[in-house]
Amino acid sequence: MIHSLFLINASGDIFLEKHWKSVVSRSVCDYFFEAQERASEAENVPPVIPTPHHYLLSVYRHKIFFVAVIQSEVPPLFVIEFLHRVVDTFQDYFGVCSEVMIKDNVVVVYEVLEEMLDNGFPLATESNILKELIKPPTILRTVVNTITGSTNVGDQLPTGQLSVVPWRRTGVKYTNNEAYFDVIEEIDAIIDKSGSTITAEIQGVIDACVKLTGMPDLTLSFMNPRLLDDVSFHPCVRFKRWESERILSFIPPDGNFRLLSYHVSAQNLVAIPVYVKHNISFRDNSSLGRFEITVGPKQTMGKTVEGVMVTSQMPKGVLNMTLTPSQGTHIFDPVTKLLSWDVGKINPQKLPSLKGSVSLQAGTSKPDENPTINLQFKIQQLAISGLKVNRLDMYGEKYKPFKGIKYMTKAGKFQVRT
Amino acid sequence: MTDSKYFTTTKKGEIFELKAELNSDKKEKKKEAVKKVIASMTVGKDVSALFPDVVNCMQTDNLELKKLVYLYLMNYAKSQPDMAIMAVNTFVKDCEDPNPLIRALAVRTMGCIRVDKITEYLCEPLRKCLKDEDPYVRKTAAVCVAKLHDINAQLVEDQGFLDTLKDLISDSNPMVVANAVAALSEIAESHPSSNLLDLNPQSINKLLTALNECTEWGQIFILDCLANYMPKDDREAQSICERVTPRLSHANSAVVLSAVKVLMKFMEMLSKDLDYYGTLLKKLAPPLVTLLSAEPELQYVALRNINLIVQKRPEILKHEMKVFFVKYNDPIYVKLEKLDIMIRLASQANIAQVLAELKEYATEVDVDFVRKAVRAIGRCAIKVEQSAERCVSTLLDLIQTKVNYVVQEAIVVIKDIFRKYPNKYESVIATLCENLDSLDEPEARAAMIWIVGEYAERIDNADELLESFLEGFHDESTQVQLQLLTAIVKLFLKKPTETQELVQQVLSLATQDSDNPDLRDRGYIYWRLLSTDPVAAKEVVLAEKPLISEETDLIEPTLLDELICYIGTLASVYHKPPSAFVEGSRGVVHKSLPPRTGSSESAESPDTAPSGVQAAEQPAVIPTQGDLLGDLLNLDLGPPVSGPPIATSSVQMGAVDLLGGGLDSLMGGGGGSGGFTPAPSTTMPANMGAPLGSGLGDLFDLTGGVGTLSGSYVAPKTVWLPAMKAKGLEISGTFSRQVGSISMDLVLTNKALQVMSDFAIQFNRNSFGLAPAAPLQVHAPLAPNQSVEISLPLNTVGSVMKMDPLNNLQVAVKNNIDVFYFSTLYPLHILFVEDGKMERQMFLATWKDIPNENEAQFQIKDCSLNADAVSSKLQGSNIFTIAKRNVEGQDMLYQSLKLTNGIWVLAELRIQPSNPSFTLSLKCRAPEVSQYVYQAYETILKN
């Protein structure tokens, strides 16, 4: 099981360590530092590193390495999932997960880690339960605590942990009962030079914010549940009911949670909402190149594409770029060779474009790799897969809740090759 | 007002100040002080001096303060064991607290304090907590048993906690079940032999029920535990699969992968014709694809596992090629893994797409990745023949880019393509030669030199090209030097007239001026070959080369099967069995996939049940200590007896305890069927006579050494006793039967540094009374690195004891160094006697007489012989064909054989001309032997 945890910042300092069994010396991290040195970038540090007596499993998030030490054969995904859960919990507790925040709240961090694992076995990882055990710091509470001397630690038994619905605490009360569901889809795609789709898939999630009194039992049905053939559910969803009727039936956790995530694979036809027209050319033994890109809407079901951002990593040989955008602002960083163009909204009548010239290192042959264009965008009120919620019903409680469904499509890893 | 202030108090006298605060009367001050202490502790400052003061704060109603003190205790108790005792009373009291949260907290913390004195006091509270009315306390206590076991395993066993823990598997609360399973799994890891998790259908049912209701982490433990279970038949396997499948939709990727492991393993038992099998295959793909949209670290582990799954069952993901396409901002470790899987999935159907992608990758920035992409193109060419041409032209395009490392990689893979498809793509050689100068890596240079040498006759200036390499001969790496030597010799053999000088130059460079023994040896060999017999040289050097195999990097099937059982673990990430890297490999038990029992024919025969077939194919080495059979140890290993007297042996035959039953009934039945009375007592001396009567050990040595031209099939020798386990003595061997006598052909190899002598051999009692008929004669002492071949004659008059498996033979070998024990399985056909041909009438009568429940059916797969060849082949091993019938195009062979102890086995072999698998029905009064007879059939027919 999980032996120890080390938190390491970008400059290679271990700023927190926690041991759940016997103490493992910090020096074990030297193996990690070696691997870190070999990797060109922090993202490229391999997640599993063997050492003579231990294994180091790490995740890199928010510019912090979370390095878990294990001693025996443990499923690595178990450890990595747990580490991600630790990060999510910190974020949930402190708003952001950063070195400063962790240091500021080191005692709470310690208490939380202690509650999350017992002897390396996960104990309480549901944020609902954790928050009942250890209250997250708020400005108000910190002030009150310093004056009155009360504490962060709850003094009741985490009742939820014993009930059949461990994810929901009992005795929840709200004056305004409301349930909001956000259907958010991210589209991952690779588009080739000629504009045809090489691969495209949709990662969708339904995030919920449920603030309902008592023990509500909800059902959510879809117009086209057929789309969801590859889904991962929150433990609260009754799988049998989904299998037989394609209806989501569940007693929700209190507050924010992810109800389900789904995946619409490359095989189903995925609509591509935007296109990029590009003309990038470098000539041999010439110090100038041409650069021109235009972005336009494609299959958007009449909705506006907004929040468009174009980034592209230029080849090393590019010295500078002189460009003029028809709208938005652009920056080229000559050190990292990163071009980014904040486009904003796309107006279908007047397509945004960015044109100009590229100055290259003189005397060298033209760069052999072509830049890939990375695209970000948002479309409100649209789930690009076509998923639509049919109805939401509540049983088990008398009051009438306020219900809301929102749709949004975003670009995930959306890449256009040139 | 944040905790960061605790980090800044570095002024002098800090400890002193804290001490004062800790002893303050004000609760608030106390707590602040403890917080400061904890903060100092977390950043690695030594605050152990405050131990007594902190422990004093423990008795409080304030839960937070209590927890903080507990945190401190866990950290420092080890360094202050005597002080820690002070805390025991409070712990014991807290374990009785009315609040279950406090009870659980106390027992949890106590388990974390790794001090012997404290653990003694822990036992009683722990016992109570394991039976607590509150499930939260029980589940915490379950984990505590594992903690305690880690500190003091003996104590846990003595106190009977393991049994209590096993009882918790049947607890009503799923969380408790999950934690009990987790704790038991962890304990079992350090106790490989113990049957802690002895699963049976009832407990499996409990686990499956708990699986639906416990937390995600609990599900992982339960699934991993389920994966170790061996269902008794395909129906049970299917029902477990059905109940595990919903886990594939879990949000936690570790749950998904553990579920995949269970399914992949149990699927092995399902028949491929089953509808459910197809459904399951379809259900496996989406969750695997979904894993790839998770965070990169998770993707990496998932990809390593998918790599195994794709090799085992390519059909699952064959349509999902696109999800493995690389995004340019994937971390490098994800990119490389995706690439590997792309090649594994490449087929004629998708090769165009794959190639286009690979070409795209070859222009990326990351050098390692580009290299691997270029290699991948070569591997595609070798794997998908139809695409070879397109791959070659893609590689040529890449060579045109003139990017140095791309060109070098391309040349290395083109060499492989030449070896796979000789005389097809040589037109590109000219292009390759243009890039000769830019090659600076040894592998690329060696590849280019190989190409030049291999196709010297088509390259006009081959001699010039090779000569140019020769100039810097001594600066080249060994790889290049060896290749250059061979290439020039090839060139000389092809164009002898112009290149004589060149070849002399390279030979002298290699033999006279080089320090490298490999190079020198190869040089001398060529030199001598060329000077003595140029024709022979031509035949040797320019011999036709074997084609390179399709995929060289596939994991070997047995390893793959083992790794499939380890999906989701570190072993699957490293693609190595845990024994290869787990520390001390103490807890390593080899796992294997269950055999398929689903097919309709074999399902009828109980003999193919998992345990039987799996009976270690490998000869097992008996450990030198442990549960050795007393008999074996008591054996006198001095001068071996030259064969026990016949009289006693036949008495023992009557008392055969395994075969006795069969023998008795056979005799009884024979009497009833009218006139058929096999007489073991008469047949026995007949075939025993020769080896026994005359101790002609030497004669048998000869026949054994010559090999078996007319006798029954002899399996190739396998290593029975590896040198590692026997202080340098390696024994390999096989069994053979020749004209009525059985012998054990041995090769003894001395891999130690000292001379070995005084060899002796002895067998333990075994099912058929096999015993050495002569002493083990090793004439001269065995010098280091020497080996000797010996044929040891055997008889079957030794004492009898039923072994499991039936054909297991335990052997002890002694030499001047020590006594070594090993066990091996002998093929049953060495026991088939020469007079095993039954009369037709008798056969019919006996066949009818043996009850039907004694009949066993087997499939002999992939055998392409016709009926006549089969019968002559079997006859060689004393299986006699009595009659042959042709029914509806099928050949039916009726056969009989007799074992040395007089047991008859009757067989019906059904051969369909179009079908490579035969059906074998065996009838015998001692049905235990059927399975081994079937194995003998299979070995004989397949070799």
Can you describe this structure?
The complex is a heterodimer of chains A (418) and B (943). Chain A contains 7 helices and 23 strands. Chain A has helices at 29-38, 76-94, 99-104, 106-116, 127-133, 139-148, 239-245, and strands spanning 2-9, 14-19, 48-50, 55-61, 64-70, 117-118, 121-122, 178-191, 197-211, 217-222, 231-233, 247-250, 255-264, 274-282, 288-297, 305-313, 318-325, 329-333, 338-344, 353-360, 372-380, 389-395, 402-417. Chain A has a 9-stranded mixed sheet, with no helix packed on it. Chain A has a 5-stranded antiparallel sheet with strand order 2-1-5-4-3. Chain A starts with a strand and ends with a strand. With 943 residues, chain B is of the alpha+beta class. Chain B has a 5-stranded antiparallel sheet. Chain B has a 5-stranded antiparallel sheet with strand order 9-13-12-11-10, with helices on both faces. A 3-stranded antiparallel sheet of chain B has the order 4-7-8, with no helix packed on it. The radius of gyration of chain B is 36 Å and the shape is globular. The termini of chain B are far apart. Mean pLDDT of chain B is 78; it is low at 584-588 and 598-710. Classes of the chains: A alpha+beta (418), B alpha+beta (943). Chains A and B meet through strand 2, strand 4, helix 2, helix 3 and helix 4 of A and helix 3, helix 5, helix 7, helix 9 and helix 12 of B.
